[in-house]
Amino acid sequence: MVLRNFFLFLSKNKTLNKGAKKWGLKLGAKQVIPGVTIESAMDAVKQLNSQGLACTVDHLGEFVFNREEAIEAADYCVRTLEAIAETGVNCNLSLKLTQLGLDIDRNLCRDNMRSILATAQKHNIFVRIDMEDYSHLDATLDLLAELRREYSNVGTVIQAYLYRAARDIEDLKGVSLRLVKGAYKESPEVALQDKAEIDENYLKIIKQHLLNGSYTAIASHDHNIIAKVKQFAKENDIPKTQFEFQMLYGFRTDMQQDIANEGYTMRIYVPFGNDWYGYFMRRLAERPQNVAFALRGLLK
């Protein structure tokens, strides 16, 4: 827990984040972030598709407080969608609302999302709104509800460590959701702190969403969780077309391939861009093994 809190603290350090943009993909980040351009992301996606793996790409960035930067980020998302369509890859788009101006002006963020979703709909591409910290949860779900009145090609993420997760799952019946354990440092007032309790709640909300008949993306590198989901799906006659597994680019690649070979949809989350620092620090915070993984990459 001490190590996790340390890396979560570092993830919010603005000075280090600014320096990371100048350093480039060093400190082992190249192992988990394939590049900084749309072209580098598409190259990575093509390679993964050739192995039978689906993808979602995310142009890294969050907590934008400048209107011009938010509009520029939205334009970059549109350009990424056009690149996905042009290359014909099997790929979705993931994004964060704070990168699109949620903390500046809700209407600005909504208009940016409409532009993105209209382009995605034209090309039959699904867009996933990543969930951020607890302070943005209600705003994210409110905007999702508004957008879904116009577009069906959009879903979001629910984090299992939040006490309210099961209630949100029920409210979002029929919506495609990515379910995760949770990667931010949250208060004991709103979130479980014990790993075993988080794991238990994670399995609970996965089963809940599946039994609701809703499309479910299980984002986990935990082989025990994955095995239990497979067994639950078989026991309840839930078809493989109703769910998928998701993992991060660069992590547990052998398991990714094994899952795809078994006939399940295995989707890889492919982040790219020069604003990689916060994402990378949160990955190091999630599992102590990731620190050793990054150090091996740095030594290379």
From TrEMBL:
A Pfam cross-reference name: Pro_dh
Binding residues annotated for FAD, in chain numbering: M131, Q159, K181, G182, A183, K195, S220, H221
InterPro entries recorded: FAD-linked_oxidoreductase-like (IPR029041), PRODH_bac_arc (IPR008219), Proline_DH_dom (IPR002872), Proline_oxidase (IPR015659)
Catalytic activity: L-proline + a quinone = (S)-1-pyrroline-5-carboxylate + a quinol + H(+)
Stretches of the chain forming a coiled coil according to its record: none
Organism lineage: Bacteria, Bacillati, Bacillota, Bacilli, Bacillales
Ranges where the Proline dehydrogenase domain occurs: 42-293
The protein's name in its UniProt record: proline dehydrogenase
Cofactor remark from the record: Binds 1 FAD per subunit.
Biological process per Gene Ontology, one example term: L-proline catabolic process to L-glutamate
PANTHER family: PROLINE DEHYDROGENASE 1, MITOCHONDRIAL, PROLINE OXIDASE
Single GO term (MF): nucleotide binding
Biological or metabolic pathway of the protein: Amino-acid degradation; L-proline degradation into L-glutamate; L-glutamate from L-proline: step 1/2
